[in-house]
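S1.2 Input.
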Amino acid sequence: MAKKKMDDILHPKDNPVLIGHKAIEDNFVRAWINRDRDGIHPVWILSGVKGIGKATLVYRIARYVFKTMHSGDGLFGDDTPTNMDMEIEDPIFQRMVVGGLGDFFVLSEERDDGTIQSISVDEVRDMIEKFQLSAMEDSWRVCVIDSVDSLNNAAANALLKVLEEPPAKVLFLMTAHSLSDVLPTIRSRSSVQKMYPLDASAMRALMFDFMPDVTIDQQEILIKLSAGSFGKALRLYQLGGVDFFQSLMRLVGANEVSINEQMTLVKQMAKVDGAIDVVTEILLDVIHHYAMISPQSQQSKLLADMYADCIKEMRALDKLYLDAESVLIKMLTGVRSCLLIPTVI
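S1.3 Output.
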């Protein structure tokens, strides 16, 4: 496959490539092929951290379903595809891209303009009303919900009502970043498929294809920081996360650092839109790095407490409208204090 620039990275609906998670693909393919004999669970939740391909796999499954139902007379007989690979030029792929599948429904936090907005109870109810109508193409209907753990109580309860007695030949494909945040009664009515973070080889393959300008050293830092989430690695790189990490490591580990040096770096980071969240996450990784050097030491225990304090500070940023720069300076000074390195005035 030709290398792509980061600007060319596709929306999950438009993306034909998925690296990893083959076991889940195989689970669904087996269930789908044997649906007439064994039935198939109508509700699937793909659960895992952000950025590992959950939404990409959901759309991939949906394309597979429509492909098997819309080829020729709608039947493959013994030749039903045993994998989900599909060319972009395939008519089903193109119909999904342009919204030309009448029996395909999507509820997503991500809107057409790229903004994030919670899925409302009215949107859920509107989808349910559509299920009361006959299928447009006399086949299965598929509903994607990305993500189900972000639904508020009203929307989740509205969804639960339809899941209690799912309409015939309707397949719900849902993502969840945090399974514990999914309504328990929805979880209990679902086939939950756990998706794990990508390994280093999968991360390198994705970076090779989609981040061709990243050096090998930068790759290794991003793999370390992103914990198996390509989405996180991409965001870190785009926001200058590699440089931030290296700068923070130098600041934290230097024998003497003035407040002015810390303030200069923090102000530089704060100028980047969206960088504060990235920097606080990176600072947590720096704390973890030093804590693991000697896990049983008193210093490590102090850093563990500092890690917990930083988590609280991060959560308070949004809730209490605290000044992000001041919080970062406090965190930096605290880490250096744990390492018994004085800050020079």
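S1.4 Remarks. Residues 1-7, 72-78 have pLDDT under 50 and may be disordered.
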